[in-house]
Amino acid sequence: MKLQGALAIWRRDMLVLRRSVLSEMVAVVAYPLTIYLAFGIGMKSYIGLVEGVPYSLFIAPGLITMTAVNAAYSESVWSLWFHRRVQFTIESYRVTPVSVSEIVVAKIFSGFTHGLVKALTVALVIFAITPFRFAPEHLLGYLAFLIPGSAFFSCAGVICGTIMDKPETIGKVEAVFIMPLIFMSGLFFPLSSYPEKVIPWIRALPTTALFEGARQALVKGSFSAMFVLQIAGMALITFVAAVWIFRLKMSD
Amino acid sequence: MTAAILTNNLTKQYGTLTALGNLDLQVRQGSIFGLLGPNGAGKTTLIRILTTLMRQSSGEAFIEGNDTRSRGRDIRCLIGVVPQENSLDRYLTARENLELHARLHKMDAARYRQRIDELMELMGLAGRQHDFPDTFSGGMQRRLVVARALVHQPRVLFLDEPTTGLDPQSRRSVWEYIRSIAGSMTIFLTTHYLEEAELLCDRIAIMDHGRLIAQGTTQELKARLSGDTLYEIEFDGETERYAALLKNMACIRSITVKGAVVNVGLEHWECLSEVVSALNGAPVRRISLRERTLEEVFISLTGAGVRQ
Ligand SMILES: Nc1ncnc2c1ncn2[C@@H]1O[C@H](COP(=O)(O)OP(=O)(O)O)[C@@H](O)[C@H]1O
Ligand SMILES: [Mg+2]
After folding, report:
1. What does the UniProt keyword field contain (chain B) (predicted)?
2. For chain A, how many structural domains are there in total?
């Protein structure tokens, strides 16, 4: 597959992101920062240490990860829906020599880039207001989670944006699946808080591998190859599914 | 010479609805071909198949000899498309819209810059090229979509209802631009405005309910209607009396009275002298030949007016 066409579409998305970067970033930082200030600082003295670290440090990686996956998912799902149903731009791409696969790959990469860029912004802000510093190898280990995690959520967004025609459905899916998936997988509390019987189920969630693994990599420097493989595997599966579903949708 | 567009028995079903039924069409290279039909006739469906956005249920279609089912990419290199709904990107400026399109056609920057300059000038948009399209009037947006479809110099241009929803002035300006780009390129346009088809097209096909019901030049289509010739006679009083007199004449096939004007359909034009002698001494103000309009052709073929 030639990627020249995909590159052109991705560059278009990046141009649009660049244009609104300031307002986008303010909006993106506001939410995790509010949570961070309310929980990490406001409740710090009530909570004390969690898994041996201050609570504000405990939730920091999760907030960054949450920003990445939320941004990747939202960008992909809304962009797909908007370009397909509102602007009909996907159709304008489809009457040029670019292939349908190139279009969907471009959209997946755009969502992925949004996730990474926004997570990086939130990370910089959190690092700026806290005294915590991380070793470079911990940061690299953390990236090994953030990259497939963003890819996974971007692909999931593309799938949802391809099959859902109504904006209200998209909003519902976000509320019923995406947010619970993120909050249940150890963003605010350690998995050990769950009742014994529930833990295996929680561990099976793809988001647990992502949030747990990412935190351990960043805070403790313990790198779980198993978790990385799990999340990378999920990303690969959803990538193939996203391309396939999009092609199917475009051929009917 | 291969036809620019050729279809054989082209059929498209949506479930049980036959949107296109056994359509046979041939469009000569370099011509402007108009597909005329009311809403729901199947025009957009046909364009979507020809531009490879959709697959036919059966039959075949070729663009410059390329099969739509197997040579989609080759076809998409050859065609420019102006869809029924403007598909402009409102987050890109007018110029950026065209640049993205050029990149999707793998044109290099040196070539597309110059081409876009020319097109912006041609379409009267040069002064607004750095503005966003949602600040444009309907007519300007339409012209921008046309410009976008022309960036890569297509050999066949499809226009799906290029002027629907525009005010008369913008419509006229879009027509002018379309005429100015006609030449070596084949243009295939759909419309439900008879005037538009008549004004722009070399050949016209009329379709309804997914079927072609007539094809030819405007003149041919009009001629097909009339074995009889229509005349308009305007009286200065006593209209009823003379209308009754005309009604009894053998060579008059049809007659309608509207105020002081009587429309008569003659068996053939030679009857005219008979009519004139019959009206000897009558207060006739005017006798004129009435041209058939395409609308009348349309009504006689489909049994109804154009559904808007
Ligand atoms: N995606 C679709 N699914 C089902 N029916 C459709 C679809 N698109 C068009 N139709 C139907 O097919 C017929 C032809 O539609 P269309 O090609 O849009 O006509 P036109 O462009 O001449 O107005 C109409 O009856 C329309 O309702
Ligand atoms: Mg239509």
Report:
1. ATP-binding, Nucleotide-binding, Transport
2. 1
